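Forwarding the complex inputs:
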Amino acid sequence: MQIYINGRPCRPAGETLAEIVEHFLIDRGDLDPRSRMTIGTAHNGVFVPREQRRRCRVAPGDRIEILAPMQGG
Amino acid sequence: MLTLLGETLASRLFLGTARFPSIDLLSKTLITARPGMITVAVRRPTPGPIPVRGFADMLEVLAIPLLPNTAGCHTVQEAITTARLAREMFGTSRIKLEVIGSRRWLDPDGVGLVEAAEILVREGFEVFPYMTEDLAIAERLLRAGCRVLMPWAAPIGSGRGLENRTGLVRLREAFPAVPMILDAGLGRPSHAAEAMELGFDAVLLNTAVAESGDPLRMALAFASAVEAGRLAFEAGLVAPRHAARASTPEEGKAAFG
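Prediction (whole assembly, two chains):
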């Protein structure tokens, strides 16, 4: 199965958005618990609140966004 | 000092946080200039660990009120999803709502803006709409529940100043009780002073400070200009005249001829 994380095709590292987020961060070498509280997520263009990530199951072709606070104007 | 929607802010200068040469210089600039509010964004992270210790930590330490944006959103749906993300990530219901029209001019899409504002206000957001000086759009945004308006001076990052001064004066006069922040397109401190002289409640800018030769000093220059302009507005400016009128009275002048 293939999904898209931040626009890049990949194989999902779990069945739920929570698992995918965790692997996304570990793959980047990020073990800081604060990162888990800082990022935001969307599933197929719809915002998924932090507490709902465990209930959000992914399917082939799904588009996941994992976003961070950035400088902006 | 400015009281905006019940909150007392340290300054009428609001700053964007993008395009600074470094986080360190951004941090020093914010500590020194102490803006009333700063804008932040939601983006895909760059490679490596999420920069919690950098930017997010700095925001927490400085404790300057945050105004997250929906920068770069060209559809209502994009803007709404971004606003919902920002509320969770930054812990504020304030949102600088941008629904952008053309990619060349980055002009506000008034129709999309009103539609998105209606939805977000219903969800409890405090919407700061990035808009043109269009009076009808302003009316619709207020009817949608916006309590503040944020008209542009000129296209984002253009540094051109108040391109449609007459239109901005009309907007200010049409809704005298509505807080208005002039946003985007300011290039010089004198532009900021001009906006404040016209009675705008605050100005928001980014590029003019971040890309100047010395962002810290430029932020201070803008802060001074904002203060000067506001003082002038409160004092009351004299109306311009077509012809000269002597400052020194004619009465009592000696006759030598």
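The domain at 3-67 of chain A is CATH 3.10.20.30 (Ubiquitin-like (UB roll)).
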